[in-house]
Amino acid sequence: MDQLEALIADTPYCRYLGLRVNDGGDLVLPGDAHHGADESRLHGGILAAAVEAAALLHLRATRSTMVRTVELTVDLVRAGHFSDTTISVRPLHIGRRLARVHVVATQQHGTRLVASATGTWLLA
Amino acid sequence: MIDRTTLPNSVPIEQLRFAAEQLNRAHQRMGTRLLGVDGPRVTIGLQWRAELADSAGAVASGVVTALLDHACALAALVALGDPTRVGGTISLRVDQLDELTTGSSVNVAAEPIAVGDDVVVLRAQAYDPLDAIQPIATAISSFAVAR
Q: What is the pLDDT of residues A29-78, one digit of tens each?
């Protein structure tokens, strides 16, 4: 967890998003109105960016190497409210060069799924 | 169901600029600018800013992802001709092809592939404006059409 916090502190865009680490080791995107698409919903692009940042941070924390996004598909399941979004990263397979990772973003203490994503990251 | 040849009532450029730069709070904060509209194709851009950088100093790939999504939403608005008909992103697939260098700005152009009554499918490319030949990222997205 300390390592994730150190990586967030080292990455300007993660600080810009306001990412933090919760007690369970998941990342949290704050539901700030300045992340909004309009007056009531989080911008899907910000959710996608936070999902990508979360996967990058987890892989950097576990592999401590340079990690680069190859591809990412984000399914936005329902509109995000202006409340905390918890982002859980689950590696499906970590190979020597490529990692396949599944990411889930939820609100309301895990009861409200807002986004599900699968992507590939290059470990160099 | 799909009409690729004609555009509906054209969206006034000032309305599109407002949607691109002001209405979307996240992009207002990022400093995203509308650069142009050419038929169905919408181009937006972002200047390099230190707070939007990754740990290496280039514009973060997540920023590019957010720009790809936003450009697609604006192209959906042009395609549908009415902001009240543009629903949210259903799905966004991004392929990151190359890395930006520190200090590089990023432009994103998006256009519809198919405009249906229920769903709009679009494609977008992100590139360094100093190297418009090689895209640094490409995306396919689908957006819901609100009724």
A: 999 999 999 889 999 999 999 999 999 999 999 886 789 999 999 999 99
Question: Is ipTM over 0.90?
Answer: yes
Cβ(A16)–Cβ(A53) below 8 Å: no
Name the residue facing A11 among B54, B68, B94 (closest C-beta).
B54
Residue B102 is encoded by which pair of tokens? Answer: 């520190």
Name the residue ranges covered by the structural domains of chain A.
2-123
What is the CATH code for B13-145? Answer: 3.10.129.10
Domain A2-123 has CATH 3.10.310.10: no
Radius of gyration in angstroms for the set of CA atoms belonging to chain A, rounded to a whole number: 14
Task: Report the predicted TM-score, pTM, of the whole model to 2 decimal places.
Answer: 0.94
pLDDT category at B4 given cuts 50, 70, 90 is very low
Please name the helix (run of DSSP H) or strand (run of DSSP E) that holds residue B141, with its range, or none.
Answer: strand B137-145
On whether any CB of chain B is under 8 Å from the CB of A3, the answer is no
Q: Looking at the complex, does the CB of residue A11 fall below 8 Å from at least one CB of chain B?
A: yes
